[in-house]
Amino acid sequence: AVLVESVLVFAVVLSVHAVVWDRFSWCAVALALQAFYVQFKWDRLLRLGGAVFQFRGAANSGLLPASMVIPLLGVVMKERCRAAGSVYFERFGIVVASTGMLLALFLSVLAVGITKPVPTNTCILTGVAGSVIIYTMKHSLTVSEVIEVLEVLLIFVYLSMILLYLLPRCFTPGEALLVLGGVSFVLNQLIKRSLNVVEGRGDPIDFFLLVAVVGVVLLGLFFTVLFLFMDSGTWISSMFFHIMTAVLGLGVIMPWLYRLIQRNPLFWLLQFLFQTQTRLYLLVYWTFLAASACGVVFYQNAKRSSESKKHQASTITRKYFHFIVVATYVPGLIYDRQLLYVAAVLCLAVFIFLEYVRYFRIKPFGQTLRHLLSLFLDERDSGPLILTHIYLLLGMSLPVWLFPRACAPKGTLPGAGALVPYSGVLAVGVGDTIASVFGSTMGEIKWPGTKKTFEGTMTAIFAQIIAVALILIFDSSVNLNSSYAWILASVSLVSLLEAYTTQIDNLLLPLYLQIMLMA
């Protein structure tokens, strides 16, 4: 299974390399080769318990698929923005690619360094790949860009040491690279933009995303350290939690956002949300869907009898939420992507805040949330945090947030790139859902080395093709320019990756589909 997963990742890397064909795509190929070898060292460390931190079990390290996401995103973003004539975002793509490569190299060197005896061949390969990447960076980045890349690496190192210690068994090494690397990059961008505020420059919704992500992470770190010294389950602690959340929100996060957007954040948000009648209709519709999702949770818990406390929700039951999320995102993508962007940020902040309430057992809802959500746990929620629903939201939202709007003057990219914002809907909302439902109910032929079925994968590919046809009918801004073969290949590769990967597919699949469609 690991070998087939690696072959699929190499197919994506080589596809991007064939389209781009520059020094950075060659670096991506070198990075993939060394990550493939180092991945086996990480897997061995996890099996023998020799890793520094406790990682999520029942999965391989996932180093190769995770290592390639950020570099490939940077490479395809650079190419798209170069074609659109946006020099600033072309340079930004180069910084993203360089940062991703350096973070992946750091994880590789870490694995090689703690493996005993030292693997000579892997060390040589890592050294050669690292030399090629650093040489390319030396001749491609300015001094300020080099400093920016090193800042992200420094933040990543400290954030990894803190969060992997506080949250054992929540991530594989690959998932930690993706999640903590992304948070480190966002934090560095926020610091950089806060120090260089230029009035009228920058989109307020981008600042809103940066501040929201950093705000909830800092909030979690603050309370994690605080509750090491006091019991979080008492009423006094709970009151203190709510008061300090209000203080940090109104005293730190709001002023920070005010400095960036140069206006009152609350007034700006209210004006933004209710700016048009279409937005009002969408908000009412989304409220109804949110109520429906809560109804599913309460109904499934009501069915759980006192005799079967260990009863878990079935795969099909969990996929109800995928259908609800698809019904949420598709109208937003068609009618108002900016509103969807902001609403997804708000939803992410609410999800993470509710997870804090559940994790710390904050009264009056902490224990209730623990009971309600325990029904929907699966083998991937082996740590103290329940992250599956947050990963689902991220998988649907990241293609919307990472869409290079400045490099798409007409609001959409040409060819297959027009489907980039729909990557989450196609890969997770349609493909993963249909594969799970049909595979678990009708599947008989299993892929070698996995529990996934041939029928589930084929049905997922077919369903995504139908979804693309429906998008073409209902979204007039999408014009594929006869790039149907590339779309079919992209969908097929990502669907096969879903069958073989042991990583969080809700997070990984949309990003790989976005990379292929942007390429």
Question: Can you put this structure into words, describing what you see?
Answer:
With 519 residues, this protein is mainly alpha-helical. It has a domain of 200 residues. It is 74% helix and 0% strand. It starts with a helix and ends with a helix.
Compact overview of the structure:
Its main location: endoplasmic reticulum. The chain is built from 19 helices and no strands. Helix 16 packs antiparallel against helix 17.
Which features would summarize this protein structure in a list?
519 residues, mainly alpha, 0% strand, dolichol kinase, membrane, transmembrane helix
Give average pLDDT, whole number: 87
What is the quaternary state of this protein? single chain
Strand content range: under 5%
Total E-strand runs: 0
From the N-terminal CA to the C-terminal CA, the straight-line distance is 26 Å
Portion of residues in helices?
over 70%
Largest sheet: none
What is the count of helical runs?
19
The succession of helices and strands, N to C, reads HHHHHHHHHHHHHHHHHHH
Low-confidence stretches: none
Structural class by secondary-structure content: mainly alpha
The outline comes out as globular
Evaluate the radius of gyration: 22 Å
